[in-house]
Amino acid sequence: MTEMIAILENAPAPVSAKEPDWSREHGNGWNPGRKLLTAIRGYQRWQNRAGPWARIICSVHVLRHRFWSAVAGADIPLTTKISGGLLLPHPNGIVIHPNVSIGPNCLIFQQVTLGTDGKKRKVPCIGGHVDIGAGAKILGGVTIGDHAKIGANAVVLCDVPPGASAIGIPAKIIQKNENK
């Protein structure tokens, strides 16, 4: 019993779906995903300020964004609403519509598309602490709940409740079993 208590006391704190963990976006070394996010955040911080210095600094962030977009191979517009703590471990091939909103502490792998369904021009709303697997497509005006998981190569065309997983083409929802 004491071993179990020791394990629980040393367990990492659960990742929040509401409060961004900004330390997730910082790090050393070569990481194009982090550099791209830094350029986006810098632009968003300066875009509504007035004066010649603000315009110059915004222009520098636009150039940094273009450079890191090319290096990372990702299409994440400067105006995308991204909460803190986003992780992009392999940003290659990520495509995000400019109107998508992404909650705090999410994880997005390579080749993910977040966009419209082509008909109604509605875009997804991603909740907090959502993990999106490689190659997943989330299309249309769907809502992905907090702590949800989207499987690799899933095509999500319907809402995913909080804590659930979506897998397959088209995605099927698997509810988290609380009894286990």
How would you describe this structure to a colleague?
- The chain folds into 2 domains: 42 residues; 104 residues, UDP N-Acetylglucosamine Acyltransferase, domain 1.
- With 180 residues, the chain is an alpha/beta fold.
- The longest helix is centred in the middle third of the chain and has 21 residues.
- Helix 2 runs antiparallel to helix 3.
- The relative contact order is 0.12.
- The model has no long low-confidence stretch (mean pLDDT 88).
- The strands form 3 sheets. The protein has a 5-stranded mixed beta sheet with strand order 4-7-10-12-13, with no helix packed on it. A 4-stranded parallel beta sheet has the order 1-3-6-9, with no helix packed on it.
- Strand 12 and strand 13 form a beta hairpin.
- The chain is globular.
- The protein has 3 helices and 13 strands.
